[in-house]
Amino acid sequence: MSLVSRYLTPVMVFWGAAASIAVAPIVLADPALPEPGSEDAGATISDLQARGYDVQINYDNGVPTVDLSQCWVNSIDTAAATGSLRTVYVEIECPR
Questions:
Q1: Contacts 24+ apart (CB under 8 A), 28-37
Q2: How far is CA 89 from the centre of its chain?
Q3: Which tens digit of pLDDT belongs to each residue from 30-76?
Q4: Is residue 48 a contact partner of residue 34, using CB atoms and an 8 Å limit?
Q5: Closest CA to 60 of 36, 27, 87, 34
Q6: Entry pTM
Q7: I need a surface site. Which of 11, 19, 31, 91 has the fewest CB within 10 A?
């Protein structure tokens, strides 16, 4: 084994491990929430529940008389973790 490879190998292993540790939080972060307005309210709520969120709905103009598939999402706000579920508040508006 040459003198260069004897000293260069541990340095490369160290920097590779350091890079892996630095990137780990990015990889383990929560997936992005759906974009408000990108789909109907019913689909957004289903997506959030499938990701393990506890969804709390806030209606902008009162409880709707139409199906949630006809409503849209104005905003999605996250809150602190409650037990094993994470809570999101979804602001929904529906046609009158």
A1: 30/86, 33/76, 33/78, 33/88, 34/73, 34/76, 36/72, 36/73, 36/74, 36/75, 36/76, 37/72, 37/73, 37/74
A2: 13
A3: 567 788 878 999 999 999 999 888 899 999 887 878 888 999 999 99
A4: yes
A5: 36
A6: 0.62
A7: 31
Instruction: State which amino acid sits at residue 87.
Output: T
C-alpha–C-alpha distance, residues 90 and 59, integer Å: 8
Nearest-angstrom CA–CA distance, 28 and 39: 26
CA 30, CA 85: separation in Å to the nearest integer?
13
